[in-house]
Design brief:
62% of the residues lie in helices and 0% in strands. The chain is mostly helical.
């Protein structure tokens, strides 16, 4: 399962690079904060299945990375996704106006 997730990350996030599954495994294994944040950012911006991809991280890492993450482009779209992911993963009660039910 983990290899399939990593393959999908490569396809979605590293399509323009010569990175292999073993390279991502090394990033995850060595837990270098800079490399992990770079991977986190790539997933947030590019992954088709962000929720599944972020399962590779520990919960404490995700809390830190979400707090440190600064959206640099496509702000409205990415910010909405970050809020949804924080709500799902970190169980935060976040109000997202654009996702509210419309009142009849």
């Amino acid at each position: 399962m983990k290899d399939k997730i990593l393959e999908n990350i490569i396809k979605d996030c590293y399509w323009d690079s010569d990175i292999q599954v073993d390279d991502l495994k090394n990033i995850l294994k060595h837990n270098d904060d800079r490399e992990m944040k770079k991977l986190f950012s790539k997933i947030i911006y590019n992954s088709k299945d962000k929720l599944l991809s972020l399962e590779l991280f520990k919960l404490e890492q995700l809390k830190q990375y979400f707090n440190d993450f600064q959206v640099t482009y496509n702000k409205k779209y990415i910010t909405k996704h970050v809020l949804i992911l924080k709500s799902l993963i970190l169980d935060e009660a976040i109000h997202i106006k654009s996702l509210e039910w419309k009142k009849a």
